[in-house]
Amino acid sequence: MAAKRGTKTSMKNMEKELLCPVCQEMYKQPLVLPCTHNVCQACAREVLGQQGYIGHSGDPSSEPTSPASTPSTRSPRLARRTLPKPDRLDRLLKSGFGTYPGRKRGTLHPQVIMFPCPACQGDVELGERGLAGLFRNLTLERVVERYRQSVSVGGAILCQLCKPPPLEATKGCTECRATFCNECFKLFHPWGTQKAQHEPTLPTLSFRPKGLMCPDHKEEVTHYCKTCQRLVCQLCRVRRTHSGHKITPVLSAYQALKDKLTKSLTYILGNQDTVQTQICKLEETVRHTEVSGQQAKEEVSQLVRGLGAALEEKRAVLLAAIEECQQERLARLSAQIQEHRSLLDGSGLVGYAQEVLKETDQPCFVQAAKQLHNRITRATESLQTFRPAASSSFRHCQLDVGREMKLLTELSFLRVPEAPVIDTQRTFAYDQIFLCWRLPPHSPPAWHYTIEFRRTDTPAQPGPAHWQRREEVRGTSALLENPDTGSVYVLRVRGCNKAGYGEYSEDVHLHTPPAPVLHFFLDGRWGSSRERLAISKDQRAVRSVPGLPLLLAAERLLTGCHLSVDVVLGDVAVTQGRSYWACAVDPASYLVKVGVGLESKLQESFQGAADVISPRYDPDSGHDSGAEDATVEASPPFAFLTIGMGKILLGAGASAHTGLTGRDGPAAGCTVPLPPRLGICLDYERGRVSFLDAVSFRGLLECPLDCSGPVCPAFCFIGGGAVQLQEPVGTKSERKVTIGGFAKLD
């Protein structure tokens, strides 16, 4: 008895789920729109009629409704005609070949019917067949019928064939589409006739087909098209409209969707305490919103009354704005409360889902559960990421009447600055972190900013994350000094003015270099072709201008290619520890080699060097990303990365020394696109040098290096090319923020 009473309560609480959005009454022969919402068939016809569509409101029902359409009353000529077995193929050819599906021959511009969905307030396309191409939601019809029976809506169902006064119906017949008492059912279904094979059902006022039928081919649906998200029959599978689509049996779709819906529903039912707690919090937020709103209105009223008669009109405007904001928040909070209440056991959406899970007809269940699962999923996400739909604070309603007395006509509420937008093109990490941001257009100005950041690669501590903060930062950029090497920082910014603090910007993650940054300048004193090297005044950029040898090489392509190697070195040598530097290579460079080498070997090799035979010439005679395969016991004195025409060459000879294979980096013997900046990391003690993408810090190549003496950066040019060293962030004239002096946030 208690279980039965609980079922009745559950059915009563889900009445809102069973109302048509057009007529606000119980669904009658509901149709499923392409947007997965439902609408009564009669309401859909009426809406299409109001839109001016005539003759497109076909009946999607697959059952005959008049005696003229039954097989026994057809024309004698049609009755004597023997239908051939290839009838399905004939229908397929008519619908899928020669003309477009559903299009009459000779129709140049078929009319596409748009239906305004009352639920999602959007226009959905019904296709050329209109309502005739939609499925009936048989599962929803069954739920409505069970609901009517549970709450006794409409009274008893009477026999449709009894002489007056009719008796109460005890049986129904889907084939005859009528309800019968016991005597009338026996009378109209005599033994020995075809009607005697009709299966009786419970009496009902709405007769439905036994199963879902394809609206196009009037055959039972057997598959589900995941691409179109639509049930299809055997003939639909071979139509051109489903060519290349992912189609699965309806049993698989039924089981997968039922498992997902059951899992989501189980989660909601298992967190009823959470639902109730969140409802209590929302109700408390509503009370605070009402109190805060009332206080804000009183403050505004007091200020506006002090301004005299000239401010009376403005006062009304401000009060209306607060009232509108308050009502909007209350409406949103009330809607959120109602949404959460529908998640309680036996209520609204949950009750409806429980009833849908009782459906055993697989196509019908898939038909009805698709939209329901989306709603249950959204409800589950709202539980996991709960927060009130509106804030109870009305601080944005404060007024400043000091200097604004002469601007009464423009008097408005103070607004906090909007969330800043971090400029990811100008924000980067090198020797220091340079952070740049801007306010969105039409945002109130900010007096100053607060920068917060933290490392994400440190072990997680219990409780909320600890942010480091710097208050009252002026301007729209800042330098963060002394960052830890090889770390990942997350940063955010928010503005502040008299109205208070605004929202935080979106978090931006920055990787710091894997080693301390090496500061050096370019030194062009080495090599025999210094006249072809143009070094900038700040000694951070160099360009190689091709000369006569390159022109002569064009004539001797078949006999030999004599090119010159232009070399420029860094003015600093490394003798210990780990060092990192970055540079940008012009993508139009013909052939550039970027790397490091022993200072003595570099001076010995390139001071007075002669022309070489080929652009494949390796100036270091040791390891190079484009060198031939060789097995060398000792570490080479040079390590270079070969760049040409916007590509990086990772030669087969590098495979023995690179530690990046598979997922960790590109394979040897290939080319990869040239990143905007290249990073070089030298580990002097280990005798290893790594080449990185300086933007993402993705490894490109790792090589051994002879570190028996001072090692310095080196750049080689064959043909035209240009290299720009990355400028240290510390040289920028920006506001400096020392990381060590930051306070931690609790």
What does this structure look like?
It is a single chain. The protein is α+β, with helices and mostly antiparallel strands and 746 residues long. Among the domains are: 269-385, no CATH class; 421-511, Sandwich (Immunoglobulin-like); 522-609 and 635-654 and 669-725, Jelly Rolls. Helix content is 26%, strand content 22%. The protein contains 14 helices and 37 strands. The strands form 8 sheets. Strands 21, 24, 26, 27, 28, 29, 30 and 34 form an 8-stranded mixed β-sheet that branches.
- Strand content is 15-25%
Q: What is the overall pLDDT average?
A: 75
Radius of gyration: 39 Å
**Overall geometry:** extended
CATH topology group of the domain at 522-609 and 635-654 and 669-725: Jelly Rolls
Classification by helices and strands: alpha+beta
Number of helices: 14
Compute the number of strand runs.
37
N-to-C span: 55 Å
Estimated helix fraction: 25-40%
What's the architecture of the domain at 522-609 and 635-654 and 669-725, going by CATH?
Answer: Sandwich
Q: What is the level 1 CATH name of the domain at 522-609 and 635-654 and 669-725?
A: Mainly Beta
Largest sheet: 8 strands, mixed
CATH superfamily heading of the domain at 522-609 and 635-654 and 669-725: SPRY domain
